[in-house]
Amino acid sequence: MLSELELFRVRIGLIQAFLLDHQYDGILLSRTDNFAMATAGKRNYVSLCSDMGASSLFVTSAGDACFIGNNIEEIRVIAEELRPYGCEIRRFMWFQDSAAALAEREFTGTLVSDDGSLGKNVNAQMAYIRSLLTINELEKYRHLGKLAAETVTAAVEGAEAGMAEADIAALLIGEGAKRRCQVPIALIAADRRITKFRHPLPTTAPLLPDKMREVLVRGYVMIILSLLREGLVASVTRFKRVGELPDRIPSAYARICGVDTLLHEATEPGKTLGDVFSQCEQAYTAMRFSATEWHNHHQGGTTGYAGRTCKASPQESFPILDTRWEKKVRDITGIDAVFGQAFAWNPSAPGVKSEDTFLLMPDGTKEIITRTPALPRVDLTAVLGRKTDVVKSGIAEP
Questions:
Q1: Beta strand spans in the chain (E)
Q2: 303, 233 Cβ separation under 8 angstroms
Q3: CA-CA distance, 199 to 92, in Å (whole number)?
Q4: Tell me, what's the pLDDT at 208?
Q5: pLDDT tens, position by position, 179-220
Q6: Are 236 and 356 in contact (CB under 8 A)?
Q7: SS3 state at 127
């Protein structure tokens, strides 16, 4: 395991390698995911309702890291987030300036940013280094996955017939908060809304009288959770029957878990997300879904310091465990660090979906971190016609 300061140096080393590869002299990081990625999980946000933080980190190709922010944010961020790292401080008054304007005045060369406020917007180019996770971060992820599993299990167990979707969402969010986590995604769908919508915001009654009413669960419910802590995101989806279940759902659910299993098995070092996606297209057909069912929703991909650092798609060249970055970081920092990655595939079909978060370790082994053993288990041997090491939870019973 790395010390806290070594971990910070590795994260900054990754950014240095990125800057040197692209011949950039410095980068302004203002997005919450990139700030967390650069600092191994530190927080620059005030509101979770925006991708943008309230302060920034400027990193040079020489490896210097500098806090840039206003007088309001400086006090807390330095005291509670960045103090161990000894970052230089560049402060401005909240009513006088901006991080980009200050960086442009005080630094020279080819400068870029992750939001377009300074030079070129390189956020998309940084996706790969956001996905690389040290042993420390993989261990953090294990703990987060356990918390996500506990959170969604509590919501599943608490969901009952006649409950409003919004009340189940409140239960889910509350369980996450009890575990000292943020809940950026809490999607709930009951019955027919599961079939109609892939991203079902829980229904809520309007502030003023209207015809719209909150949907109550009658037959079954889908609960979708993303849990955030120290910049890392764990995603998981579970189902519960509370009444009568449509006849086609048990078979469809088992088969979509089969698709998820095939994606999990195809995720191997040396491949690309495009390689895995080619298996995805075949998996839908093999599991007796429409060959174009994947058109109706993204299938997931790498996760880490973002809900999805890169979504898989046809011909996507994003590499799985490119070990060249380990040498780049070692050459820059002198620290021997190995990297793994995290994945969350989420295949879906009308009325069903399968989603877990799993780690791909530096040695190529895999570990599902959102397993929910208190819930029933899908018989994947029967679904696939062969044995598999993958485990998927089934639809919970009342």
A1: 26-31, 52-60, 65-70, 88-92, 111-113, 182-190, 220-229, 232-241, 300-304, 306-311, 341-345, 348-349, 352-353, 358-360, 366-368
A2: yes
A3: 40
A4: 86
A5: 999 999 999 999 999 999 999 999 998 888 777 789 999 999
A6: yes
A7: helix
